[in-house]
Design a protein that fits this description.
The protein is mainly α. It is built from 14 helices and no strands. Helix 6 (about 70-80) crosses helix 7 (about 80-90) and helix 11 packs across helix 12. The longest helix has 25 residues, at about 150-175.
Length: about 210
């Protein structure tokens, strides 16, 4: 099916007269994201489930859709007003209590990395991790532990390894002479850009 066929199906079968081939192409390229009703209609036209269109879910809305849950169901379980919950989804801004966050994790079957992302703690975690690898990692065991509920010894091992990897990469880049300081800077920045993924990889390797 071409974009024009998809757009026609959404207009004719789902009453969305504004859907054009250009809009479908924008969805395909990730330039914009379809709303929940649009995603449902898109899945209907393509004869699949909404979850199949998402790939690896990242946001609160994507995790809910992947689990096949309606917003009302999630709001009811969490004890939230539906409009308040929908605002959290729309703005990707979790504002629930710790108890509600725990209920959300159970309902959506979130693993720890996804839980940290969905509840909006990832930017703060990334900030602490960047500081840990560029300065003294020992000073960040406690701050990281407040965000990530893991055993202290495990956190220490993961942060120490993360620090070793970053510092080792910087030294190796300078030793290779690939662009001098500029090469080290680019290599180091790439590591810092992926700092959260690198952290979870270390945690998985230590626990696995």
């Amino acid at each position: 099916m071409g974009p024009e066929h998809v757009a026609y199906g959404m207009r004719a079968s789902y009453g969305m007269p504004y859907v054009t081939p250009d809009l479908v192409i924008a969805w395909e390229r990730g330039m914009v994201s379809p709303t929940s009703p649009e995603l449902t209609a898109l899945a209907g036209v393509l004869w699949c489930s909404p979850g199949e269109l998402i790939g690896r879910p990242r946001t609160l809305r994507e995790h809910r859709i992947t689990r096949g849950l309606a917003p009302d169901d999630v709001a009811r379980v969490l004890g939230l007003e539906i409009l308040a919950y929908l605002r959290m989804e729309e703005n990707n801004d979790w504002r629930g209590t710790d108890r509600q966050a725990a209920a959300l994790a159970e309902l959506l079957e979130l693993d720890l990395p996804d839980f940290i992302t969905v509840t909006g703690r990832e930017p703060r975690l990334a900030e602490h991790l960047r500081s840990a690898v560029t300065t003294r990692w020992q000073a960040y065991v406690r701050p990281v532990g407040k965000i990530v509920p893991l055993d202290r010894r495990l956190l220490e091992d993961a942060l120490q390894e993360l620090h070793r990897q970053y510092q080792g990469q910087m030294v190796a880049t300078l030793s290779w002479g690939s662009g001098g300081d500029n090469g080290a800077s680019a290599s180091g920045q790439d590591f810092l850009d992926r700092i959260v993924d690198n952290f979870w990889t270390n945690v998985q390797e230590i626990t696995g």
